[in-house]
Amino acid sequence: MLDYLIDNFGRRITYIRFSVTPRCNFNCVYCNSHTGETDKDEEFSTKDIEFLFSVMPEVGVKKVRLTGGEPLLRYDILDIVKALKKDKIQEIVLTTNGFYLSSVAEALREAGLTRVNVSLDTLNRDTFVHVTGVDALDIVNSGIKEAIKYGLTPVKINTVLMRGINEKDILPIAELTLNSDITVRFIELMPVKDNNFWKMHYINFRTALALIKKKYELIKSTGGSGEVASYYRIKGAPGKIGFITPISQHFCKYCNRIRITAKGEIYPCLFSKEYISIRDAVKDRNKDLLVSLIRKSVDIKPKEHGVISLSSQDFINNMRELGG
């Protein structure tokens, strides 16, 4: 019988976001906090990861998302996916900037990956370079095509909304859903420690919603289990459009996840200041201690992060380490 992870507010934790590395080959303006970068040698090995997730099915964890940084920078990413599959994780997904995706999409699928999310904030080459610091829009688009080709679907496109930067991209990105079973998700910009970009460029999701509604009739749709986005379809389109609203309409009461950093810290909330270190338990292969610490991290999961305003002191400590 499963002994589920249930927090003090009755939420069952079935989903773990695991940042396999804080390293990234992009330098996105809204993400980089320029602090707390973890040395490559501190990252969990494939064997560490296999042990860590071997206990998860016993406590009811069904889904793992591999994040970063950029997870495809891990030379052993295929072995990591295979290890999670061996550990009987039901759904294994990966969030990537797409730079290396075209070269490994087929292998990821064969290793057991369920699907991918790709960060894509613009369809304009100059804006892409401005946001990421890398001239790689064509490379990312190729990666998306390869992911679709090899069945890592439905591919989800993550687009961070930025006032003064990518409003003109909102409609074209939404239109990616017209002819393909792609899910586009517009995400409200979030505050990161030591990065004032958020204060200058935050816009409410309703801006994007209104722009799309000016041209298209939107029909309310649904997401999968544990989804935090509100979904729509353009009438007649196969794909979906979602809005993730951590600032204007936080969805904490539905939160079913915890986050684990590359060096083995469990954060019960993206905005948590508290964390539980499981590093020694993993390195020592101490299963009982590991499960106890996982449960402790769930016990300190807050009810909510509350309302965040431009003058708020609530922020994400390090987006690269926590994986968004």
Indicate the percent of residues in helices.
25-40%
CATH homologous superfamily identity: Aldolase class I
Count of DSSP-assigned helices: 11
Alpha-beta content class: alpha/beta
Task: Explain this structure.
- The protein is of the alpha/beta class and 324 residues long.
- The protein has a single domain, classed as Aldolase class I (TIM Barrel, Alpha-Beta Barrel), CATH 3.20.20.
- It has eleven helices and 14 strands.
- A hairpin with an 8-residue loop joins strand 13 and strand 14 (276-277).
- The chain is globular, with a radius of gyration of 19 Å.
- The protein starts with a strand and ends with a helix.
- The model has no long low-confidence stretch (mean pLDDT 89).
Which descriptors would you attach to this protein?
alpha/beta; 12-stranded mixed beta sheet
Outline:
Helices cover 29% and strands 19% of the residues.
Describe how the helices and strands are arranged.
Elements: E1 5-6, E2 12-13, E3 15-19, H1 46-54, E4 63-67, H2 77-86, E5 91-96, H3 101-111, E6 115-119, H4 125-132, H5 137-149, E7 156-161, H6 170-174, E8 183-188, H7 197-201, H8 205-215, E9 218-221, E10 230-234, E11 240-244, E12 257-260, E13 265-267, E14 276-277, H9 279-283, H10 287-299, H11 319-322
Parallel strand pairs: 3-4, 3-12, 4-5, 5-6, 6-7, 7-8, 8-11
Antiparallel strand pairs: 1-2, 9-10, 10-11, 12-13, 13-14
Helix pairs in contact: 1-2, 3-5
